[in-house]
Every structure is written in structure tokens, then in C-alpha cells.
Amino acid sequence: MKMISYGRQSLDAVDVQAVVDVLQGDWLTCGPKVAAFEQALGKYCGAKHVIAVANGTAALHVAMLAAKVGRGDRVITTPNTFLASANCAEYVGAQAVFSDIDPASYNLDPVLLEQNWTDGTKAVVAVDFAGRPCNMPKIAGIAREHGAVVIEDASHAIGGGFVFEGKEYLVGGHPWADMTTFSFHPVKTMTTGEGGAIATDDDELAERCRLLRSHGMVKNRPEEPWYYEMPELGFNYRITDIQCALGRSQLKKLDGFVERRQVITERYNNAFSKVDWLTCPQIQDDGNFNLTRVAWHLYVVQIDFSGIGKSRAEVMAELREAGVGTQVHYIPVHMQPYYQNKYGYGRGDCPAAEAYYEQCLSLPLFPSMTDEQIEQVIAAVKGLCK
Questions:
Q1: Which of 85, 231, 245, 265 has a CB 3.0–4.6 Å from the CB of 22, allowing a cystine?
Q2: What are 192-217's pLDDT values in tens digits?
Q3: Is 254 helix (H, G, I), strand (E, B) or coil?
Q4: Under CATH, which number does the domain 13-252 receive?
């Protein structure tokens, strides 16, 4: 039986040809396709500037540096995320501080964010987990009241958005994030193979991001075209024309990818709604903040493993035997040995994230899933309790 992976890229002949055209051209890296992709992504999101980089982790690192976060600063983020959302603070000598999640959205809880605020907090990294946007107006209101920078880690959420006070905003193009970062890893909603980007409306931040992604190097003497200077230490976080040609082709299909993910999510929700040992992801509006366009990157359910008499490992193995691949997103970052050893974090520090982790499981979700594959997943999951 062919395995249905939990996520995968969705490529077609048009994507392949876009890459082939670059391979047969004059530029392979740092050429016109990079600028074209940045312009197209900015237009799509509604962002003034987009800076494409090597991967999503590089995007977060550059955002930290551009915001001048450094030694002695604190950066608040969620424990329910991939390592990079916290590690980016550590890269620049700052301290990653974890604030617990809302048990319904699995995103940063704004109430707890305000309660956990401490002096020295320079930035907040708000992660749009599974594609569901955080309540960015609330988070930004808290952060900006304290003079902190707001970075939205939208690695899961490209193509998504929300309505606030009756107006719709796309992720990457709203005023409540100083910078928004994206990832284009193959399992994400659209891909460049590996790659990432930073979106911002701030001219100064954009200029610093461009400088930092390319060794901190500038060419500022038109009369001496060979001459360059390095006013600041930067990194080789550049992306290639090959990747950006693929990204631009994928971007044209992004709305279709999002719609298909929404259809699959709805099929799952309908099928599992009456399964008493399983909780589906929910969309809950929050006052004037309404989620009308969720670009589901992951379909994460909560399973009462003890209730069905099986461990998570046993469930994953049983589903694998039925041809259904699964994954766990995520082990709470504050429980990683690095953060426990350095800062003394441990069990009980973020109880909502820890409770979520004990029962979470990601089921297959990607645009090229067939209806038959969707039904195969549903049957396999329902069969766990037989």
C-alpha cells in the first residue's frame, strides 16, 4: 500500500518548466528571478517590501538582527512551535522566553502574554500555528505598549488572513506586525524547495534585511563597480534564481492550494465531528477579530490515547500499517534540553502547551490528496477504536 505522507509538495509541469528555463538561462543565483519573486509576493500579500532568503530560519534570524535585538534582551514566543521560532533569539544573544498557548487556538494567549511580560522584552515572535493566524491586533497592542517589536512567524500561514473590525487583511500585509517571516519548505503550502522571506512595510527594516542576508556587503561607488564595503557583519542567506522561479510559479497557484486545504479540512471535520475520543481543530472568533481565511498547513487532532487504550506510538504504527503517515507538531520547545539546562525551564511552566502535546497528532494534508486518499485516512482513523 502506498503511504500517504502527512504533507508534501504539489508540483506540476509548469513548475518544472519554470526551473528548466532558469537552468537554460544566464543566471542561476542572485539574478532577476529573485527580484521578480519578491515583487510578486509583496503584491500578493500587500507588503511594501519582501526580502527572500535561504530558508525560514534565516528569515527569523535576519529579522532579529534587523530589529537590533541582542545581548541582554528578552524575546517572548510560544512553546508550541518549531525550534527556530525560539532559537532565533538565542542566535543574537537574547533570551527566549515562553508564554503559554490558548488551549482552543494553540496560538499565543494574549491574556497570558500580558501577564508574563517582563522588563527587557525587546520583541515578540507570534507563530501562526497550523495556518491559523494569531490575534495579531491584540498581541501588537500589548507589545507596542511596551515598545517591543512584533515579528509574525507565518511559516504555516502564507495565503491566509483574517478580518478585523470589518476589514480583511492577508498575512504579511497587515499593520500589526513589524516584520512577517515565511518558510517555503516542501511541506508548506507553497514551496521553493528550501527558502524563506521577510515581509515589511518599514523602509529601514527592509534595508537592513537586504544588507544582512548578503554578508553585510554594500556597493556604494558606481564609478568603481568592483568596490564593496562591509559596514556590518552579515550572513550568506541569499536565495537562488532557481528557487525563486519555482516560488513565483507556485505563488500563482497559492489560492488554489489554500482552497483545497480548506476543503480537505472540512471533510475531516465533518467525518470526525461525532468521534468522542478525538477533537478537531476549531475556528473561534475573538470579538472584532474573525478568522475567515485559514490556510491550513497542518491538520492536527487531539486524541484521547488513554481512552482508546493505545499509546501515541501504537496509534502511529497502526495508521502506518493502513498506509497513513502522521507526525507530531510539536514537542514544546521549553522542554528541550538546551532550554531546560540554560534557563531551568521544565514541566509545568506552560501547562496548556504540555497538555496539547500529550494528545496531538497531525494527519495527512496536502493539495494533491485525492478524494480516495481522504477517505482512506478517515477510515483508518475511525478504525483505531474498533
A1: 245
A2: 999 999 999 999 999 999 999 999 99
A3: helix
A4: 3.40.640.10
